[in-house]
Design a protein that fits this description.
It contains 15 helices and 14 strands. By secondary structure, the chain is α/β, with parallel strands linked by helices. It folds into 2 domains: 187 residues, Glycogen Phosphorylase B (Rossmann fold, 3-Layer(aba) Sandwich); 165 residues, Rossmann fold. Strands 3-4-2-1-5-6-7-8 form an 8-stranded mixed beta sheet, sandwiched between helices.
């Protein structure tokens, strides 16, 4: 049986892509799977996956340097055959694992050089320098690894320029997981946003937009603010009176929120790392059977309007966001039709079942000429 270790120094142990999708898919298909994490919550076994915790260290520099060393030592200790890395700071760990004769996969969830251009804690000049430097490092280091997986076709195409073995494993939802099967006439005059809450994901514009509503709609806001100053700021907006601030919820609770909502919001700002992204929440809204109010980026417009499952708006225009919310409140039959269209698109195309089969075929191809005990 092939031993596989998924490794992260950043993500939670139950991360949707890493644990719920990739680890569990491999585990039920006769791989012996470990997941190395750094959250301080201890070791455990769940759904056929052995979760190994290296402990948590506070601070970004500790995470980048000391935690990665702890992760490397634990990675060697689990004696896996294949190491599947999920964070860019673990690329040096991957190179060291290659020196020990291991098969190493890097799973690129984001276009990191573009992501760095949006980091609020970096000075604009520093952003450009760090982004460029990391881009050079990717092109130098990643060809030393066995394979690259990416979360979108756009990131795949970037890596194909300098690595021969790259495949996109899209972060599409698991069919039925978030479908609460709530009759449309039982829904509330509520819309929702689910995910990390940040300025670059458009929280200011959304809360401002609530001030322009003509309908009695409310926003179910699910997730944590990552910028304390932004949280304090938007709580002073008039629109905050129309917010149900629900905090971090588990998946069953998220399903219930989606079930009672009439639309889901994903109005990220037009930054380099957003316009070519495929946000998981957009497809989760579709999977749950509610229409999507999305940013009017060309790729997102192609998905949303191509599936006739929502509307695209200027994410910088609070009034346009409000008009989209009012439209679905005032036209429940059209909202229900678009919700069904989105669900149909997920069932037929944008789902984890097909991506899981791609993952398994990728592993089979990668390991076909190797022998493991």
């Amino acid at each position: 049986m092939v031993k596989v270790a998924h490794v992260t120094s950043v993500h939670s142990r139950y991360d949707i892509r890493i644990f719920q999708k990739e680890c569990r898919t491999l585990a039920v298909n006769n791989y012996k799977v470990s997941l190395i994490v750094a959250d301080g919550k201890g070791d455990e076994a769940k759904d056929g996956v052995s979760i190994v915790d290296v402990g948590v260290l506070r601070g970004r520099l500790n995470r980048i340097f000391r935690t990665t060393q702890n992760v490397f030592r634990k990675a060697l200790a689990v004696q896996a055959d294949v190491y599947h890395l999920h964070d860019p700071e673990l690329i040096p760990v991957g190179i060291k694992l290659k020196k020990h004769g291991k098969v190493v996969i890097f799973d690129s969830h984001e276009d990191v050089p573009k992501q760095l251009m949006s980091k609020p804690y970096l000075h604009p000049v520093a952003r450009r320098f760090v982004s460029m430097a990391f881009g050079y490092y990717e092109r130098y280091a990643c060809p030393k690894l066995d394979a690259i997986l990416t979360a979108t076709p756009f990131i795949r195409d970037k890596f194909l320029a300098f690595h021969p073995r790259v495949l996109d494993i899209n972060n599409f939802p698991m069919v039925g997981e978030l479908d609460a099967m709530v009759p449309w006439d039982s829904k509330q005059s509520e819309v929702c946003y689910v995910g990390g809450i940040t300025s670059i994901r458009g929280v200011r514009e959304v809360i401002k937009g609530l001030e322009f509503l003509k309908s009695p709609a409310r926003l179910n806001l699910v997730g944590r603010f990552t910028e304390q100053s932004v949280e304090t700021e938007v709580q002073r907006y008039k629109g905050w009176a129309s917010v149900n601030a629900l905090g971090q919820l588990d998946r069953l609770q998220v399903r219930d929120v989606l079930g009672r909502s009439i639309a889901g919001l994903v109005t990220f700002l037009p930054l380099p790392n957003h316009v070519d992204a495929q946000p998981n929440k957009m497809f989760e809204y579709m999977s749950s059977g509610i229409p999507v109010i999305a940013s009017n980026f060309p790729l997102w417009r192609e998905i949303i309007e191509g599936s006739q499952c929502g509307v695209c708006v200027d994410p910088l225009d609070p009034q346009a966001i409000a008009e989209a919310i009012d439209y679905f409140v005032s036209n429940p039959d059209e909202a229900a039709r678009m919700g069904r269209n989105g669900q149909k698109a997920v069932n037929e195309r944008y789902n984890w079942d097909q991506e899981g089969r791609k993952l398994l075929a990728f592993y089979t191809s990668l390991l076909s000429k190797r022998e493991f005990i």
